[in-house]
Design goal:
Layout lengths: L2 H4 L2 E6 L11 E9 L2 E6 L1 H6 L6 E3 L2 E2 L1 E5 L8 E6 L21 E10 L4 E10 L7
Antiparallel strand pairs: 1-2, 1-4, 2-3, 3-7, 4-5, 6-7, 8-9
Length: about 130
Amino acid sequence: MNGQLEKSIVLITSASDQSFKADVIGTGFAFYQEENYTYLLTCAHVVEDVGGEENVLVNNISAEVVAIGDTQGFDLAVLRVKELLSVLPLGLMMLPGELEISLKISIPGYFLWGKNKVRRRKTIKGIMMVEVGE
């Protein structure tokens, strides 16, 4: 994974002590920093899945939900975390080896693996499909 990309991705988990929420994780990325705060983008369904706005942890630090969309529509949420300055804001970038014009994409994220639900991080790579009108 690209170094800058790697330093921008965070793990989102639940602060809830309910056992079924312990198996829920999500991914987010930093896009802005101001003073002692880092702002992150994730999906609204991740916030819902970890037990709601009061239960969001980013890299095990409590997060404030600044804005949230609808899980059935605009499925995005903005989080604010204090003292998370080691996570760098992600800027637009061309990944090495992909400087030619292409539709190649890389999507890093977290997932639970196997029966023991081990947390893993992986980058999925692919090619975007473009629908061309007739």
